[in-house]
Amino acid sequence: MTDPQIIILIRLSKGRKKVFERCVQSLRSQTFQDFNVAVSIDDPECAAWVPKDFQLFSLAKSSFSGDFFYNGYCNVLKSAYVPISSKHWFFFLDCDDYLATDDALERIAQHLKDPWQAVVCQMSRADGKLKPSDELMNSRHIISGRVGLPCLILRAQYKTTLEIGTEENSDFQWIKTLTDNLATKFVKQVLVHSPQRNYGKSLD
Question: Which of 7, 27, 118, 143 is 20 to 30 A from 53, comparing alpha carbons?
Fold first, then answer.
C-alpha cells in the first residue's frame, strides 16, 4: 500500500442510476488506484447499481431530519467507514458528479502529505465556473456558495471532529469551521466536475 490511501464517500439516491454510472466510470478510469469507495443509499432499488467492490450502506431517509437530510448520510459514512489511520484521507462525492480527469486522484495525492493539514481543491460546473475560483484560492478565502463538499479533503483522524448539519448551508459551515481551525493547503486543481444541481430529483 502506498501513502496516501484515499477513501471516497458517495451519497446515491433513487432516480440517479445513469449519472451514477458516469461517476463510477470516472473512478474506474483513474491512474491512481490506491482508493476505496463507500456508498450510502436511501432506497433498496439503488443497491443493484453499486459495484460489488464498493462498500454499501443502506440508510433510511426517516433517520434524518432537516431540508438537507442527506447530509446525515455523510456523517454515517465517515463515521462507519473511514478508519483512524495515518495513511487514509477522505472526501465526499455526489452521485451526479464525477472526477474531472483520469489523473485527478494521482495529482491531488501529491498534496496529501501533512497529517495535520486539510486540503482544499476545486470543482468545475457546467457553465465552466470554478468553486472556489482561482481568485478565492489565491486569497485563501472560503465563502458561502463558492465552495462545494467535494472540495475538502481531510485526514481520517478528523472524521469525528465535526458533524455536517442537515439544514441549508450546513456543508459550507462544516468546511468553513474546519478550515478556520486546521492548517489548510489550497491546491488550484479541479478534482470534481459537477454538471448540475437538482437536489432530491430524478436525473434519469
Answer: 118
Residue 203 is assigned to a structural domain of this protein: no
Tally of domains within the chain: 1
- Residuewise pLDDT in 10s, the chain (204 residues): 456 899 999 999 889 999 999 999 999 999 999 999 999 988 889 999 999 999 988 876 667 777 788 788 898 899 889 987 768 999 999 999 999 999 999 999 999 999 899 999 999 999 999 999 999 999 999 999 999 999 999 999 999 999 999 899 999 999 999 999 999 999 999 999 998 665 445 555
Q: Confirm whether 204 is domain-assigned.
A: no
> Cα(131)–Cα(118) distance, rounded to whole angstroms?
17
Domain with 65 in it: 5-194
Instruction: Report the CATH number that the domain containing residue 179 is assigned in CATH.
Output: 3.90.550.10
pTM of the model: 0.91
Rounded CA separation 61/55 (Å): 19
